[in-house]
Amino acid sequence: MISILEDSKILWGLGQVVNYCVTRTTFPLVVMMGSFLLALLLAVHYREMRKLPPGPWGPPVVGYLPFLGVRHKTFLELARCYGALFSARLGNQLTIVLSDYKLIREAFRREEFTGRPSTPLMHTLDGLGIVNSEGRLWKNQRRFLHDKLRDFGMTYLGNGKKIMEGRIKCEVYELIANLRRAEGAPIDANSLLALGVSNVICGITMSVRFSNGDARFERLNNLIEEGMRLFGEVHYGEYVPLYNYLPGKAQAQEKVAKNREEMFAFYQTLIDEHRETLDVDNVRDLIDVYLIEIEKAKTEGRAGELFEGRDHELQLKQILGDLFSAGMETIKSSLLWMIVFMLRNPEAKKRVQEELDAIIGRERLPTVEDMPHLPYTEATIMETLRMSNIVPLGTTHSPTKDVLLNGYNIPAGCQVIPLINCVHMDPNLWDEPDKFNPSRFIEDSGKIRRPEFFMPFGVGRRMCLGDVLARMEMFMFFSCIMHQFDMQMEQGAALPSLEGTVGATIAPKAFRVKFSPRAMPVAVPLAPDHPHLRHVGAH
Ligand code: HEM
């Protein structure tokens, strides 16, 4: 009886409040809420009409953008809630996220998924190069680069791999010598690794080799690092173009373009030098290959068709920029993660070193030929790639026409993102995915196991173009460091965090480590000189 009485009092009170609200001060609020509900209803209707995958909704105009936070982490939570295929409107961009490996494979093997989204950033890059181009330009350039880079040794077949191994070896020797110079004192290995890895890609593409401490190299690296930070700053502008007109953001856009100009000026000097010294019977690098192709097209009267009519030298410069940024940051970050995981997992570190000592011995350094005989070392590299997920969202794709996937409509022009970190940490695919366990990649027979849900290089038609080089390079750098040095933290220092810094890749936060020489160090010759390499900077 008492409770009924109290309930009726409460109801009466609530009625008064609602009455007051609707009729007086909060009327605008009610109108706003009404409009929001209406927009939500329209949005649900729109989604059903277009048969889009399910997903969260946000307010009109901005959509789910204000709740995005760290993209790969938020997408992971949304995938757990909405399933393997979900959609979200981020500003003016419809985004579709795939987190099931079979769906990712099914989508990315299809021609229609080879497009790239049209965003302000893509416009800054003019759709040139290889990473951001699409259509015929991308298709022809991908085939061309694939063949030419194979000629420079990016292959496991035949003698080609010897050429590449020679280049990598030269940088590994230099790194070992530089690490020895530190005499076991704690150092941040970031810049030494950046130097070695950059020299490999710069050697192949433009016959340039930088020396330690070279100001030009530091400037180039700063430009890349700043570029990544600036992309982060104007990131929202990808979804809400008006954002780029806010105070400070327009300047950031301008700085992106200015930095690109400075990088291009550096490439232009090299292109001019190459043109002056070009010898068609003695091809030195990728710049030579392109210059010969351009000349050939001119002589055959098809200069206008080459690169789909785009400016020849701009295309070459964007290719150099793409390969430098795609081939440098990724490998450097992966090597840093390998060091982090070794410091955090001393048992695994010991097993790698035991395997190296047993198979290689202490009198020589590992080579690419040794790779199949060092399964635990290779598995450790693979386990690092799985757990560090340096490119957790791959590169965004965009369907070139409306496509049906899993019964849903994926409209032309939307953004399609593969959630690689979700696949790599899925407990239904991996036993205890949070545990660092290289053995999961080794079969009972002792051979390497490569499950189809292991996809650090992406899959399908736009899969990484440098995976062969990346695997060779990571193996050579990692196995030689592990063979020659023991790594420890400074006394009392905390282990490096597994929480990385999110940029174009996810890189470990800065840390210092001691590289103590192991017993019987192998003498490393001074970097063997490649006849065409042009040394930049002082030793
Ligand atoms: C650990 C090292 C590396 C990782 C984890 C990695 C990963 C990836 C991923 C996930 C993609 C996107 C695939 C997609 O769009 O679906 C990609 C694309 C690409 N990568 Fe790598 N990559 C690495 C090293 C390299 C190296 C060394 C090169 C240089 C030769 C390179 C060149 C490229 C290029 C050119 C593309 C664009 C391909 C296209 O759009 O058709 N990558 N990479």
From TrEMBL:
<dbReference type="GO" id="GO:0005737">
    <property type="term" value="C:cytoplasm"/>
</dbReference>
<keyword id="KW-0349">Heme</keyword>
<keyword id="KW-0479">Metal-binding</keyword>
<keyword id="KW-0408">Iron</keyword>
<feature type="transmembrane region" description="Helical">
    <location>
        <begin position="26"/>
        <end position="44"/>
    </location>
</feature>
<comment type="similarity">
    <text>Belongs to the cytochrome P450 family.</text>
</comment>
<dbReference type="GO" id="GO:0008395">
    <property type="term" value="F:steroid hydroxylase activity"/>
</dbReference>
<protein>
    <recommendedName>
        <fullName>Cytochrome P450</fullName>
    </recommendedName>
</protein>
<dbReference type="InterPro" id="IPR001128">
    <property type="entry name" value="Cyt_P450"/>
</dbReference>
<dbReference type="GO" id="GO:0020037">
    <property type="term" value="F:heme binding"/>
</dbReference>
<dbReference type="InterPro" id="IPR002401">
    <property type="entry name" value="Cyt_P450_E_grp-I"/>
</dbReference>
<keyword id="KW-0472">Membrane</keyword>
<dbReference type="InterPro" id="IPR036396">
    <property type="entry name" value="Cyt_P450_sf"/>
</dbReference>
<dbReference type="GO" id="GO:0016712">
    <property type="term" value="F:oxidoreductase activity, acting on paired donors, with incorporation or reduction of molecular oxygen, reduced flavin or flavoprotein as one donor, and incorporation of one atom of oxygen"/>
</dbReference>
<keyword id="KW-0503">Monooxygenase</keyword>
<dbReference type="InterPro" id="IPR050182">
    <property type="entry name" value="Cytochrome_P450_fam2"/>
</dbReference>
<dbReference type="Pfam" id="PF00067">
    <property type="entry name" value="p450"/>
</dbReference>
<dbReference type="GO" id="GO:0005506">
    <property type="term" value="F:iron ion binding"/>
</dbReference>
<keyword id="KW-0560">Oxidoreductase</keyword>
<dbReference type="GO" id="GO:0006082">
    <property type="term" value="P:organic acid metabolic process"/>
</dbReference>
<dbReference type="InterPro" id="IPR017972">
    <property type="entry name" value="Cyt_P450_CS"/>
</dbReference>
<keyword id="KW-1133">Transmembrane helix</keyword>
<dbReference type="GO" id="GO:0006805">
    <property type="term" value="P:xenobiotic metabolic process"/>
</dbReference>
<keyword id="KW-0812">Transmembrane</keyword>
<feature type="binding site" description="axial binding residue">
    <location>
        <position position="464"/>
    </location>
    <ligand>
        <name>heme</name>
    </ligand>
</feature>
